[in-house]
């Protein structure tokens, strides 16, 4: 009887846990009504543009997916396209929202012409020949400018990553993936076929996943396992819409700036704030690279540095003891990635209640900075050096690596780890076995860059 009560209590507890997790992760539990479509940040920018003096009649025959890309799939082939096939309709909606253009039907022009022909035929059949008052069909509008282009690229897994941890059967993890679409849009004059302006925009598409799980044996015959997770994928349609809207805005602003729209636009002075803000955005974009990252070129040609270190020997005696040490030096950059480093410092070798020696150390290293254009960059290095104690001189090699972060324009902090390889087995004054003495050093320091 007691076992049954325990089982019931456990089931109630598990059900409550799952229900609470459902609330935490906002999992859908009811059907949703149809709603109006979401708007993007670029939609609001388009709608807030200052109006033109006169709207521009514009035609779009075809603005389609030119990538040929299918949706990425982990479970075999997927014949669904990665990009929505209604991008012409999205572009026309963006042109309407801008209130700068009068879009005319050209994508399905054959349907329009057929319908107009039906109207003419019907009128001729039912209107008497002598009825001169029958109105004629008005002529179709013609476009002064055509828009061409399309979605020319869909790149999957441009950036992926994640992190997680597990301890004693309890774990959690998170992952992300970024795809990217690219759009080109150009305005063509119907008067002479001249391409007036071409613009290019891109948009990343983010997918994230958060998972938690529990896996543990309660006893030899009972296993408890629980799992919860949440995944969110940015809709591709919204990403395409935002990129197209951004392209339309760019086309309008650059057209004003380069006087493409002529008398259709009001006095360019009235758009000064709009053009200035767009120019600033262009300059910022010049510094941007893949992944919406903005490189930083503040590291100089030279650098002075100082490190505070924790040090410990790997020698022949037992009970090695950690000590504090320090080093300081100078770096000269051969290029953005590679520098030559000279430094001097102290290294203390100590085994508890046995020996303690403090060496004066000088080193030469060749260092490689992996991401020199970013504030946060890993680095690796290797080189050789000498160690002086009393009148004895020891040679060694060393290699290491770490992380550097620019906290100010020319100041960076560094966390590093270094392994010293001795060529003799007598650092601690005792020769034993076939292995030479080594040392491990972990340092925290500062770099001051000079001469940008």
Task: Provide structural commentary.
By secondary structure, the protein is α+β, with helices and mostly antiparallel strands. The chain folds into two domains: 44-68 and 82-122 and 141-287, ABC-type transport auxiliary lipoprotein component (Rossmann fold), CATH 3.40.50; 302-450, Porin (Beta Barrel). The chain has six helices and 15 strands. The protein has helices spanning 2-24, 41-47, 87-98, 109-126, 236-257, 272-286, and strands at residues 56-59, 64-65, 101-104, 145-167, 170-189, 195-219, 222-233, 302-314, 323-333, 338-351, 355-369, 376-389, 392-406, 411-422, 438-450. β4 and β5 form a beta hairpin. This is Curli production assembly protein CsgG. It comes from Epilithonimonas lactis. Keywords: Cell membrane, Lipoprotein, Membrane, Palmitate, Signal. InterPro entries: Curli_assmbl/transp-comp_CsgG, OMP/PagP_B-barrel.
Could you give a short description of this structure?
With about 450 residues, the chain is of the alpha+beta class.
Rounded mean pLDDT score:
83
**Beta strand count:** 15
**Spatial strand arrangement across the major sheet:** 8-9-10-11-12-13-14-15
Helix content: 10-25%
Number of helices: 6
What Rg do the Cα atoms give? 35 Å
